[in-house]
# Entry
Amino acid sequence: MKAAKKIGQQTIAFANPPVISGASSIVGPKEGKGPLGKQFDTVLPDTLYGEQTWEKAERKMLRETCQTAIKKAGLTIHDIDFMMAGDLLNQIISANFTARDLGIPFLGLYGACSTMFEGISIGSMLIDGGFANYVLTAASSHYDTAERQYRFPTEMGVQRAPTAQWTVTGAGAVVIGTQGSGPAVTHVTVGKVIDLGISDVNDMGSAMAPAAADTIIRHFRDTGRSPADYDLIFTGDLAGIGRALTEQLAKKAGYDLSKNYTDCGILIYDPSQDTHAGGSGCGCSAVVFTGFLLKEIMAGRFRRVLGVGTGALLSTTSSFQGETIPGIGHAVAIDAYNPGG
# Structure
C-alpha cells in the first residue's frame, strides 16, 4: 500500500502544512559587515563572544538563538515537544551541549551544511503526523572551529584556494507548529547521497552541486511543478562555483533556473570581503533563511519559495584516506500563507 502523503519517488505533501511561527539568527562580525548584516537579530562584536574558546562561543550562539526563536513564537521551552539540531563539529557537540542546557527532548542531526533543512523536513513530518505540537530546529557553524577541525588552525595563516568557501559564523533556529498564519511548509523532498567523484576538500561547491540538482529535478518531477511555480529557489551553500554547476545540471534535465535561483553562500557576503567562492557551513543557510529570506516571505515579497539545504558529507578521516566527497540536498517548499489555516 502506498504511503498516503508521499508523492512520486522522494517527496512528501503535507495534509496539514506545518507553520513556521518563530525564527532567530545570530552571526559573527564578518557576516554582520556583509550585505545582510542589518537583517540578523544579533551581530557578535568578536568571534569569541565572551568565551574562552571558539567552540564554546558557537555553543553560546546556538543556545541563544534557540531561546530567542521560542520567545518570538510566543512560547516557552516547556511548550516545545522536540528539538532537532546539528553542527559541523565532531559528535555535533554544539547541538548536544545546547540540548543539555535547554532540557528539551532532543534528536541530534548531522547533514553537514544541509542540517537546517533536514531538521525542518523531519520536524514538519512530526507536526503533520500528529506526533508534536511544536518542534524547534536549529543549526550552527563557526569559521574558526570548522577551520581547526577540517583544515588548519587560523593562526597558521594558510593560503586558501580560489575555490574555497568561508565557513559562516552564525546560528539560526525556527519553531514549527500545528497552526498559525505564518509561512507554511507544504512539501519536502528528501535527497539522495550523490557522489560524482570530486575529492578536493577546497572545492565543496562542485562536490555538492550534483546532489542539489538531483533533488531539485526530483522535486519538480514528483510534484509536477516547474521553476516558474516559485518566486525564488535557493540552495544552502553551494556559493558561486556550485551554483553555476547546479544551473547547468538542471538545464540539461530540461529545467531553466536562471531567472529565480540563488544561493545563500552568495547572498551572505560581499565580493569585497575576500571569501573566495562564497559562504558555507551549517550556519550559512540557517542565518540567511531565518534572518533574511523568511522575512521576505512574511512581508509578501515572495509568495512561494523552494529552499534546498546542501551538505558535503566528508570527514577528516575520509579525506585522509583518499575518499571522494558525497553530497546531499533536502528540499523544502514554503508558501507565504498557511493553506490549511
About this structure: The chain has two domains: 6-177, 184-335. Residues 164 and 202 are 5 Å apart (CA to CA). The chain has a mean pLDDT of 93. The domain at 6-177 is CATH 3.40.47.40 (Peroxisomal Thiolase; Chain A, domain 1).
